[in-house]
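Two proteins follow. First one:
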Amino acid sequence: MLYANEAELAKSIRAGEISTLYYFYGSDIASIEAYTKKLVSKLVKKDEQTYNLHSFDGKSLDLSVLSDVCEALPMFSDRVCITINDLDADELNQDDFDYLCGILSNVQDTTTVIINITGISLLNNKNKLKPKNNKLISFITKIGSVCNFTDKKPAELVKLITDTVNKKGATISKKSSEYLASQCLSNINLINNEIDKLCDYVSNGEIKNETIDLLVAKQLDSNSFALAKAVVQFDAKRAMQLLDELFEQRIETVMIISAISMSFIDLYRARVAINEGISQNEVAKDFSYTRDFALKNAFRECKNIPAERLRDCIAILADTDIAVKSTRTSQRLLIEKAIHAMLIK
């Protein structure tokens, strides 16, 4: 079964609908780790895990050992639980891939195998699932349970943030919670780290947007979009201020240009989509977007920007990227010249 989201997965687990095989993947690593931990705890009690919990590293998986473990019966427990972390099916030859599928298709009713992906990419350079990973997911969908943990939207993290802040003795409004989530690009691990810092700063007080601006480190994606927004709004002062912040973070020049270029590409796609009557969801699907916030921001900000201007800005950034990689001219000077050229377009 393919679960549309983690809420559906959680509902089935709470209802006691336990599968013999789970496959967790996606961009929300923190949720994958949390669900794996919770599921393991539910299936095998802590004092039963010595003999009934088996953990494998997918990068060095011994299929014959896995086969033996999958055939084992639980000892002093109702279930055997097996976790396999970071299994890249495309690294397997065809015989081993077929052997793996054979093992997974014959898992006993008293065993649950959880394959979770937290430290490797399953995608190719076109942001599509690599062939064997795609085939494995399709295979498991038919005989087990699959869930793609995508990054949550800022609004979806409001309750999590407010609850966490309240437990630490501080307060935060719904608006500021959403703002914090957006500044952290909806990364739960990053959000939790920033909450610790913010709560220590305000003690028993309220975390406001001003506090977030003061303490939370700006992320490359959010800063680059803000810079692109400043450029298309002809706000030269704000654009240069944001560029200063990017260089203060000691981010490589090539990465800065890449991030700014991607923000302009997001804006251009959104502008063209609006011109053609194409929805945000269709664009997300067509271009395999995992950055929901980026597309949402692009659709919001592009409405009064001509597509021709965005196209010209992308061309300027492409030329700048080539110049940075091929000349000895100051890299900062090249980016500043690019921003000036985009501002007068």
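Second one, unrelated to the first:
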Amino acid sequence: MKSFRKELHFHLPTRRGIVNITPQVEEALRGSGIREGLVLVNAMNITASVFINDDESGLHHDYEAWLEKLAPEKPYSQYRHNGFEDNADAHLKRTVMGREVVVAVTEGKLDFGTWEQIFYFEFDGKRDKRVLIKIIGE
């Protein structure tokens, strides 16, 4: 069995944002030489998420609106975590959206369902963040 590791680096200029990282994951898969196995993609920061869904701007807006209702950014004073930082809402949003995804690799390709893509979702931007791609297989 082979193993391959790659990091993606992000520094979004806004507090929140969604980035389709499917092309970077596919590039890592090609570089790994692995034809059958699994790809793990996970956010390496507790205020960001990696998830799979449709690449549709209306849906992305709906995520933002829905998450803001669940865990509004302001007022900052509503959260006990806030003090040194003002990102308690980002931690909660990440919990809802999840940390990672795992995708099967079949014949050297990501084995997706219809419309599936991999996304990085930033909840507390304007700082350096990482995503890990770990591929195992043969």
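SUMMARY FIELD: The helical segments are 22-32, 57-70, 88-97. The first helix runs from residue 22 to 32.
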